[in-house]
């Protein structure tokens, strides 16, 4: 797997934008009907409630990080999840890690495996301060969409930024550490409130920069193992509701209490678009070691 670094170009919003004028992928953020139930306080997610979730694992089958499917070839995650000389695999359609296949009524939950062929992260990613903690993985082969495998919405129109920043309650999803100190076997979701930057500074010693934000619920919070996973919200679009990714889980404090720091997705649209436009067979960019 190649690790590539891009210089972020200031003006990338040249029409036409991919998919539509609003989203990276036009048919994004849509859940299938009966199982899309919202839950709070770290409860189990329902089947198909987060069909964009990606379970990233290494060659020795160890869970590495969460991620989200943003197109049929690209996965969004955190840059700190990437390690040199590590081969990653993306498991899509994942729900309960310990079960190979499960049917609920006439519906059977299917998961698929994809090899990660390339990984991209910004050259300004700071591994100690977690600035620009964002990465995009390119899958070796395109993903076939189905009920439990669909892309999340990435807003590419900067006019949405003010509205997105005004959403106070966001939903996090992942297989991170639970109350018993173990990674969750089943996908979980949690509604999380945005917090002022001073809350992250007070409780976890983090100085938030403008392409990050702080969120947390006191004792109920995202935790280790949720890294790379999404924080998102439903937004209205053309008489429908679309699920949009707002943040990427970056880091938290001791015991995962009070607050966590998230990478602000809309602050990195330039990077995302540049990777999206980068030809899959082009290896002209220098490899980052």
Produce the secondary structure layout.
Blueprint: E1 2-5, E2 43-44, E3 53-58, E4 63-69, E5 74-77, E6 88-92, E7 102-104, E8 107-109, E9 112-121, E10 135-139, H1 161-166, E11 169-174, E12 188-195, H2 197-204, E13 212-218, E14 230-237, E15 240-252, E16 258-264, H3 269-277
Parallel strand pairs: 1-9
Antiparallel strand pairs: 2-12, 3-4, 3-6, 4-5, 5-10, 6-9, 7-8, 9-10, 11-12, 11-14, 12-13, 13-16, 14-15, 15-16
Structure description:
There is one protein chain. With 289 residues, the protein is mainly beta. The protein has a domain of 109 residues: Thrombin, subunit H, CATH 2.40.10.10. The protein is built from three helices and 16 strands. The strands form three sheets. A six-stranded antiparallel barrel has the order 3-4-5-10-9-6. Strands 11-12-13-16-15-14 form a six-stranded antiparallel barrel. A two-stranded antiparallel ribbon has the order 7-8. The C terminus is likely disordered. InterPro entries: Peptidase_S1_PA, Peptidase_S1_PA_chymotrypsin, Peptidase_S1A, Ser/Thr_Proteases_Immune/Dev, Trypsin_dom, TRYPSIN_HIS. This is Peptidase S1 domain-containing protein. Belongs to the peptidase S1 family. CLIP subfamily. It comes from Drosophila erecta. Keywords: Calcium, Disulfide bond, Glycoprotein, Hydrolase, Metal-binding, Protease, Serine protease, Signal, Zymogen.
């Amino acid at each position: 797997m190649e690790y590539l670094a891009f210089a972020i170009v200031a003006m990338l919003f040249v029409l036409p934008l991919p998919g539509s004028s609003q989203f990276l992928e036009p048919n994004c953020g849509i859940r299938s009907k009966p199982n899309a139930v919202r839950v709070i306080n770290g409860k189990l997610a329902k089947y198909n409630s987060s069909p964009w979730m990606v379970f990233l694992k290494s060659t020795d089958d160890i869970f590495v990080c969460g991620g989200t499917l943003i197109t049929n070839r690209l996965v969004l995650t955190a840059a700190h999840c990437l390690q040199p000389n590590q081969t990653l695999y993306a498991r899509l359609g994942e729900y309960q890690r310990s079960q190979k296949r499960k049917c609920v009524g006439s519906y059977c939950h299917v998961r698929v495996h994809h090899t990660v062929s390339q990984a991209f992260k910004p050259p300004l990613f700071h591994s100690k301060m977690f600035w620009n903690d964002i990465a995009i993985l390119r899958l070796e082969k395109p993903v076939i969409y189905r009920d439990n495998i669909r892309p999340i919405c990435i807003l590419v129109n900067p006019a949405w930024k003010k509205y997105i920043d005004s959403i106070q309650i966001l939903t996090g999803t992942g297989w991170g550490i639970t109350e018993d100190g173990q990674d969750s076997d089943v996908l979980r979701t949690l509604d999380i409130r945005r917090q002022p930057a001073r809350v992250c500074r007070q409780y976890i010693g983090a100085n938030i920069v403008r392409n990050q934000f702080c969120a947390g619920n006191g004792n109920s919070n995202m935790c280790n193992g949720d890294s790379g996973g999404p924080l998102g919200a439903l937004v209205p679009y053309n008489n429908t509701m679309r699920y949009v990714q707002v943040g990427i889980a970056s880091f938290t404090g001791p015991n995962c209490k009070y607050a966590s720091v998230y990478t602000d997705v809309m602050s990195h649209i330039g990077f995302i678009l540049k990777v999206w436009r980068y030809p899959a067979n082009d290896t002209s960019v220098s490899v980052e070691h």
